[in-house]
Amino acid sequence: MAVKAIGTWVGGFYQTGRRDVGSWSSGAGAAARPNWRLEVSRAEGRLECAGVCVKPVEDVKSVEDEDLSSACPSSEVAGGAGNGGAEEQPRRLNRDLPKPLSLTDLTVSSHGSNVRVAYQGSPGAFSEAAALKAYPQCVAVPCEQFEVAFKAVELWLVDKAVLPIENSVGGSIHRNYDLLLCHRLHIVGEVQMAVNHCLMALPGVQKEELKRILSHPQALAQCEIALGKLGVIRETVDDTALAAQLVASNGLKDAGAIASARAAEIYGLKIVDETIQDTSENITRFLILAREPIIPRTDRPFKTSVVFTLEEGPGVLFKALAVFAVRSINLTKIESRPQRKRPLRVVDDSNYGTAKYFDYLFYIDFEASMAEPRAQNALAHLQEIATFLRVLGSYPMDTSSL
Hints:
Elements: E1 2-3, E2 9-10, E3 13-14, E4 40-41, E5 53-54, H1 57-64, E6 116-120, H2 126-134, E7 139-143, H3 146-154, E8 160-167, E9 171-172, H4 174-182, E10 186-194, E11 198-201, E12 212-215, H5 217-222, H6 224-230, E13 233-236, H7 240-250, E14 255-259, H8 261-267, E15 270-274, E16 283-290, E17 302-310, H9 316-325, E18 331-338, E19 344-347, E20 355-358, E21 360-366, H10 373-385, E22 386-396
Parallel strand pairs: 6-7, 6-8, 12-13, 12-14
Antiparallel strand pairs: 1-4, 2-3, 5-22, 8-9, 8-16, 10-16, 11-14, 11-15, 17-21, 17-22, 18-21, 19-20
Helix pairs in contact: 9-10
């Protein structure tokens, strides 16, 4: 099933105007009744949607053409070569585990009947657990980097991707916000999951014998109090499960890892302490990404995510947020990110010299479905103020228990 792009599109919905509340801008389009619709055809057997409304087009190119070479490379762990002539500890062999996809693997697409879901990290990562929570019967496909997971979906190597976007302790995952704008994937769902960090080591090693701890930077930051009491050296790697794998495969007797209980089971490590995070209610929110958007509904709670830019001026952001307030739409998240290609805007309209401002992208999540007229009217209103607007997805809220 294919959706043909017609007229002006915002997230797959055709918009010709609105007339539900007053407008801050004048023009012929502001007086028209909103008319959002989907035009569907079955020519290609799949659903496609432009999902973007742009003023001007050049702004999209400046963001989309961003060089993605800044993705974090795989980390190396100093001192991980082994323990000399020390006897190798018994541990589970991991040669049967799936090898994480790398950028060089993104050449051939092949997948079976099961849903294939990409996640960043190694088997045993928290992202894998989130993928299995979203799709219990899926084939979870590990990827080395966030960007690889995005491209795996685009190249039909996998059907979906489940990636973290924010944590209740560590805050937003900024890299994934940037990648959302660089790629044309759609948010089709979310998963919220409680994160329980465990300290693990080789069998027979006591917690007091550990001199250094390996883990992802976010995990290390979330366990600051426990690590401070141990007085150990912190070493960062690309994901928590990789830390457990490195300790096990290299037989590191002086090193421990912070990872999930499943990672300890997979790599044959012993948990020496659990629930070591600073805050017991440590929640990570994941986004589910797909090539096609889902059709919004009103029979269950929905959330919609958008990104937009604004002109510089007093009260402009207030006006942009007010389009949701006047319609009683609750905002659940607002995030600002500087535009990398055009970080500064120069304004010279005073007698006191030239002013320089950061040029920002604003990401907003709000509790409403794009099938609701109030959400359609709010975005039509926002379009009158914004210089760039794109709907990233309208998707069911995760209301399941943690």
